[in-house]
Structures are given as structure tokens and as C-alpha cells.
Amino acid sequence: MPEAHQHHQTWTPQRLMSWGKRIGCSTEKMVSTLLEQKKHPEQAYRACLGLLNLAKEYSPVRLEAACLRALHIKAPQLRNIKSILKSNMDQLPLPPHPEQATMDVHHNVRGSDYYH
Questions:
Q1: How far is CA 96 from CA 39, 68, 69, 102, in A?
Q2: What is the mean pLDDT of residues 10-15?
Q3: Which of 45, 47, 57, 58 could, after both became Cys, cross-link 62 (CB 3.0–4.6 A)?
Q4: Cα–Cα distance, 32 to 104 (Å, whole number)
Q5: CA nearest to 83, candidates 99, 97, 95, 67
Q6: DSSP collapsed to 3 states, the chain
Q7: Is the confidence at residue 1, as pLDDT, over 80?
Q8: Which residues contact 76 (CB under 8 A, 6 or more apart)?
């Protein structure tokens, strides 16, 4: 077997999760999510490795913040993490959850009684 293929066999979901956990809880959750999105975890190894290598390019702190933001907005894909890091959105405060947003009171809005 070629050397590159042998190296690929050393990766396991547990090893990737452990690496993510060393960076932070959100990074670990992101690795877990990427692995769960595929029918076979091996199909997500490249995405997980790409995610974890972003810690070298940006920093573990920034990667953790970007993962937290991506999970918060329910966009757990590698391309979204890269976009968050490139645009420095990881350094901004998190937006409120949509459930926390309230609808403005308006005189033109019908209540539930209107329909019954």
C-alpha cells in the first residue's frame, strides 16, 4: 500500500474528536457534527482535517469562536467556518437566537381570534 494511504489509515473518529477537544468544546462539537453528516465517517475526514488545520492558520482561539458562531447560526459546514474566519466575524458578539427575537406590536396584525 502506498505511504500516503497508510498514513490515512491512522485517522479515526476518536482521534479527530480528541484533537478537536484540545482546541475547545465548540470545535469538538463541530468535528462530531461533520462526522455525523456523512453516512460513513471516513468520508468526513478531509473536512475534519481541514477544519482542525485552520487552528494553525488563524489560531485555536479564533477557530473555537468561529465554530461556536457556526453552531449558533446552525451552519455547521467547513466553508462557513472559513468564511467566518476570513471576514473576522468570529470576533463579533453572537447574534440573539431567533426564538429570543420578539415581533413588534402593530395595529394591523391579526390575533389568533380572527381565524376562529
A1: 32, 13, 11, 11
A2: 87
A3: 58
A4: 38
A5: 67
A6: CCHHHHHHCCCCHHHHHHHHHHHCHHHHHHHHHHHHHCCCHHHHHHHHHHHHHHHHHCCHHHHHHHHHHHHHCCCCCHHHHHHHHHCCHHHCCCCCCHHHCCCCCCCCCCCHHHHC
A7: no
A8: 30, 33, 34, 37, 70
What is the distance in angstroms between the CA of the first residue and the CA of the last residue of the chain?
A: 71
pLDDT of residue 112: 74
Placement of cell 498514513 in the chain:
7
What is the Cα–Cα distance from 82 to 78, expressed in whole angstroms? 6
Look up residue 41 and give its amino acid. P
CA Rg, the chain, in Å? 20
Q: How far apart are CA 95 and CA 65, in angstroms?
A: 13
